């Protein structure tokens, strides 16, 4: 049975879903990496496709921008479609000085300025974290493929244009590697559902330095991330 946001029928979505923020990137992955992809969702143009990669079923579907959006889609996938694993593949702004453009980051944990976790009414502050095996395997795959990678704490922010001009510097001072906008909600939904999640990021810009990738560099860098994520599919 379909949901308000996903039109797929039971059995049309694989147990592992790769989620780029941009639905057109999901379309790109389906067309360039999957065998016999079938479109399973187009509601609100949030494109989703299911096919095979190295003989294994996998779905790729956009998540949209921000925690409210990925919160909806990941909740429905985990709870209504029996999805076991969601791997977010997105872009991020690098904060750690060691990071270079096109490097990959494995989000071991996701700090946040969001109130998304308040819905769970915890008696303290919960730390949203990735599945350990997925994170460890992602780092190992990067090493095997010769891809530069760092693993650690990232920031999932609700704010793209922050009125507090020193906000990113303060996060950087606490060892945050990079900033993006979705992982914390994904990790919290996975924890609540007893499922698995991982956030893989490509450094597309360095906001504290004002540098960023060209469109050609983005295509190359994101392709590396796509290959790592697809190799994680069980």
Can you lay out the helices and strands and say which pair or pack?
Blueprint: E1 16-19, H1 23-33, E2 35-41, E3 48-53, E4 56-61, H2 67-80, E5 85-94, E6 104-112, H3 132-145, E7 149-156, H4 167-172, E8 178-180, H5 183-193, E9 196-206, E10 211-212, H6 215-231
Parallel strand pairs: 1-4, 1-5, 5-9, 6-7, 7-8
Antiparallel strand pairs: 2-3, 3-4, 5-8, 6-9, 9-10
Helix pairs in contact: 2-5
Describe this structure in words.
The chain has 234 residues and is of the alpha/beta class. The chain has one domain: Nucleoside phosphorylase domain (Rossmann fold, 3-Layer(aba) Sandwich), CATH 3.40.50. It is built from six helices and ten strands; from the N terminus they run βαβββαββαβαβαββα. It has helices at residues 23-33, 67-80, 132-145, 167-172, 183-193, 215-231, and strands spanning 16-19, 35-41, 48-53, 56-61, 85-94, 104-112, 149-156, 178-180, 196-206, 211-212. It has a five-stranded mixed β-barrel, surrounded by four helices. Strand 9 (196-206) and strand 10 form a beta hairpin. The protein starts with 15 loop residues before the first strand and ends with a helix. The mean pLDDT is 96. One of its GO terms (biological process) is uridine catabolic process. The record marks 218 as: Important for catalytic activity.
């Amino acid at each position: 049975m379909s949901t308000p946001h996903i039109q797929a029928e039971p059995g049309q979505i694989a147990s592992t879903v790769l989620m780029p923020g941009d639905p057109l990137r999901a379309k790109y992955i389906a067309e360039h990496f999957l065998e016999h992809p079938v479109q399973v969702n187009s509601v609100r143009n949030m494109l989703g496709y299911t096919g095979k990669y190295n003989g294994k079923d996998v779905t790729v579907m956009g998540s949209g921008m921000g925690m409210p959006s990925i919160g909806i889609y990941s909740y429905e996938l985990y709870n209504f479609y029996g999805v076991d694993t969601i791997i977010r593949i997105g872009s991020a702004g690098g904060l750690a000085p060691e990071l270079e453009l096109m490097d990959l980051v494995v989000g071991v944990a996701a700090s946040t300025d969001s109130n998304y976790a308040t819905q769970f009414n915890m008696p303290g502050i919960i730390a949203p974290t990735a599945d350990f095996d997925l994170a460890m395997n992602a780092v190992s795959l990067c090493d095997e493929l010769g891809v530069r990678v760092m693993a650690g704490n990232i920031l999932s922010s609700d704010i793209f244009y922050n009125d507090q001009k020193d906000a990113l510097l303060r996060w950087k001072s606490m060892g945050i590697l990079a900033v993006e906008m979705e992982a914390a909600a994904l990790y919290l939904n996975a924890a609540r559902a007893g499922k698995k999640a991982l956030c893989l990021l490509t450094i597309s810009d360095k906001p504290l330095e004002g540098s960023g990738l060209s469109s050609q560099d983005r295509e190359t860098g994101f392709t590396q991330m796509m290959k790592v994520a697809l190799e994680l599919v069980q």
